[in-house]
Amino acid sequence: MTNLKNQKLMLGLTTALALVAPAAFADEMPPETSLSGLDVELIGREDIYSYGSLDSYSEAPMLTALVDAGTLPPVGERLPAEPIVFASGAMVDGVGEYGGVFRHVIGGRPEGWNWMAGQHQGWGGINMAMQECLVRQGPRWQVRAEEQSGPLPNLARSWSFNDDNTELTINLMEGVRWSDGDPFDVEDVRFWYEDNVQDESVASRMPAGSFGDNATLEVIDDYTFKFVFTSPQSETIVENLAYIQGCPGPSHVLKDQHPTYNGDATYDSYTQSLPNDVTPPVVLGAWVPVVHRPDEIVIMRRNPYYFKVDESGQQLPYYNEMHFRLSTWGDRTAQAVAGSGDFSNMEDPGNYVEALRQSQSDDSPVAANFGPRVLAWRMVLNMDAAGAEGEDEAAMRTLFRETDFRLALSHALDRDAIGQALARGPFAYPYISGFATGSPYYDAASSDYQPFDQAGAMALLDGLDVIDTDGNGLRNMPGGGADLIIPVTVDNGANASTKQLEAMASQLEEIGVRLQMRGVDQTTADTVFTGGQFTAFFSRDNIILPTRESCRSWPSGPSCPHFNAGGERLDFEVEVADMLTAFQSTGDAAEQAKLARDMQRLVTENAYTIGTVQIPAALLVNKRIKNAHPGVPVFMYEWAEDSVIRERLWTAAEDQIDEVLPGQIAEY
Ligand code: GLA
Asked: Are residues 591 and 648 in the same domain?
């Protein structure tokens, strides 16, 4: 099979040059201009938070009132003996004042509260306000390079490997309580891993078998357990235990609903056992959802058992109430700019110019900061031919397995035009596949660029016998089969995605390939994607770390990536999978960087995914919010909602917004 790049080398270079050229790519990435200008001071891990006991503790006055009324135990009894202590030195505005409301606006809708079974709560930071995970990634953006040895601790206070790195022993914080007062201990972790992650009938966010090559968990005591691996692992693997993937749920609530413990339960009834119209769920996070009015708002109130304090002993969080207005993602930015919302990850370039213009005036309620390019869009083609239903679908997925087919689609894209269709100006930069340019693992020289080349794209399709046999302008499946019409599922609420998909569709039409857009709501899109139930899927992704939600983009487990979930692996995919395993089993940063470069080379030269563009995002935070560090990236190790550390944000009393439910906490 001919390969466009090789053809070009043959045509364009002398034999002598061609002999020395193979190591280099035929096409290099175009030059990139950065829009991020902020210089921030990097600090040590323990400069942010540590564990310890303080002489005394205090709490929000509304909680003292409940303690006095006999409704709540005193703060000292609600906190662990050694809570997490946030250091004042890392707080740009210092120790805070209690009270007020933090107002989010989101485009998603809570699917349900059972995050252990993979349900989402509507995104935009709502799940991160409820869930606490074994480790934490967000604040890592501020940690200096010498201390970048894996994630920050959280519920997992410390961990260590045995000599040959085949066992990882984890020590949990002692004395943490759920929002209903029940103790958190190793049983919650065991239940999370054995009965959710490793139970193949549960659609947990971490797919079965994907952690440490199918690790098993052994309980040691109430606060200690270990993972036992089949091959040596490293510190890197612990990153998988952060956001969404490593966040235990309340086993004292959920076990009774799970088929393993309840003969009357089914997996479906288990998944649905914490419906979104029943509040409050039991959580470990700083705030608890107490009201959910569909399509209107989720109101959260402070969790009186939250296990973190500031250096002066004040229990966190500072805000009593948190709102998630259920609107659209575009409205999140519009409201942040207008000052009626407090926060937005500005990520739809369509409104960048106007939002930036408005936020630059001195009396604007909001401050905006651009980061590196971390948001990338791509179409993935389902390559699981064996898992296809029906012959036509199987034939299409078989075609998708041809590297030349994917390269043809990639070459057919005029990425500059797609970028300009999104937003005029310097925002968009071509995205091919692999890491986004904002990733510490991105390497331009290891990226094989596929420039706009319609003639080349058509030659590749001809070479695959994908030609227009019936003269209707559309190419046919090989052997004169059906017209090549690819259904592409997309979240129809994601403007930047639908706009790009439209541009992509009209460009592919020019080479005789039709895309048929299948718009669905965000929850459906999520389920369709993670369930591998699509022919093609278009979405944004943030491919920064190879260890975060890796099943979305990498062959990181037996049923990963979602676009080749059960299928036979392609040759280069086998190599990438091995590199990924090697990446997680070495602690050596230079070795990891090299593996990442090799992975980047393989996925770009094989057009593993069909990338369009990548853009920088800007974080918008209302100026009345204190402790929002100006350097927080919209996405780096985690989304800004985690990186900005909301439990230590606050607003001075005179600027606070009235609470909707003053004095209330979740009642169980
Ligand atoms: C959605 C939003 C992001 C971010 C995440 C957090 O994906 O688009 O900006 O808020 O949720 O999970």
From this structure: no
d(CA 181, CA 185): 12
Q: Which two tokens stand for residue 516?
A: 């048929």
Q: Tell whether 407 and 269 lie within a shared domain.
A: no
Query: Do 61 and 484 touch, CB atoms closer than 8 A?
Result: no
Residue among 126, 641, 644 whose CB has most ligand 1 atoms within 8 A, to mutate = 641
Given a contact cutoff of 8 angstroms between Cβ atoms, the answer to whether 215 and 241 are in contact is no
Q: Would strands 84-86 and 343-346 be described as parallel, antiparallel, or unpaired?
A: unpaired
Is 32 a member of any domain?
Answer: no
Q: Does 435 fall in a domain?
A: yes
Which residues lie across from 613 on neighbouring strands? 430
- CATH number, position 155: 3.40.190.10
| 125 CA distance to ligand 1 middle (Å) | 7
C-alpha neighbours within 13 Å on the C-beta side of residue 231:
13
For the stretch 370-425, pLDDT in tens is 888 999 999 999 999 999 999 999 999 999 999 999 999 999 999 999 999 998 88
**280: which DSSP letter?**
P
Give the Å distance between the CA of 464 and the centre of ligand 1: 39
* Helices 352-359, 329-338: inter-axial angle, 10-degree rounding: 20
Please give the residue range of the domain that contains residue 437.
373-615
Residue 574 parent element (H or E): helix 571-585
Q: What is the DSSP letter of 23?
A: T
Pairing between strand 321-326 and 101-106?
parallel
How many whole angstroms separate alpha carbon 425 and alpha carbon 427?
6
pLDDT at 14 over 70: no
**Residue with the nearest Cα to atom 2 of ligand 1?**
124
- Are 374 and 438 in contact, with CB atoms under 8 Å apart? yes
Residue 38 sits at φ, ψ, to 5 deg, of -80, 135
Q: Is residue 475 a contact partner of residue 512, using CB atoms and an 8 Å limit?
A: yes
Q: What's the rounded Cα separation, in Å, for the pair 469 and 479?
A: 9
Q: Which residue is closest in CA terms to ligand 1's atom 11?
A: 124
Is residue 301 a contact partner of residue 321, using CB atoms and an 8 Å limit? yes
Half-sphere exposure of 107 toward its Cβ, with a 13 Å CA cutoff?
Answer: 20
Q: 205 and 298: one domain?
A: yes
Preceding omega of 555 cis (within 30 degrees of 0): no
Closest atom of ligand 1 relative to the 128 alpha carbon: 12
Reduced to 3 states, what is the DSSP secondary structure of residue 69?
Answer: coil
Is residue 532 in some structural domain? yes
Structure tokens of 331?
A: 């409205």
Of 567, 526, 561, 558, nearest to 546 (Cα)? 561
- Going by alpha carbons, the residue nearest to atom 1 of ligand 1 is 124
| Model pLDDT for residues 195-230, shown as the tens digit of each residue | 999 999 999 999 899 898 899 999 999 999 999 999
Higher pLDDT residue, 424 or 502? 502
Which DSSP helix (H) or strand (E) runs through 357?
helix 352-359
The count of structural domains within the chain is 2
Collapse the DSSP code of 556 into the 3-class scheme (helix H, G, I; strand E, B; otherwise coil) and give the result.
coil
Range from 289-293, 324-328, 627-631 carrying the lowest mean pLDDT:
627-631
Of the candidates 143, 136, 146, 202, the one whose C-alpha atom is nearest the C-alpha of residue 173 is 136
Q: Do 507 and 607 share a structural domain?
A: yes
Going from the Cα of 265 to the center of ligand 1, the distance in angstroms, rounded, reads 33
**In degrees rounded to 5, what are phi and psi of residue 152?**
-85, 150
SS3 readout for 186-250? HHHHHHHHHHHHCCCCCCCCCCCCCCCCCCEEEEEECCEEEEECCCCCCHHHHHHHCCCCCCCCC
58, β-bridge pairs: 314
The backbone torsions φ and ψ at residue 562, rounded to the nearest 5 degrees and listed phi first, read: -60, -20
Same domain, 102 and 243: yes
Lookup: tokens for 269? 């009834």
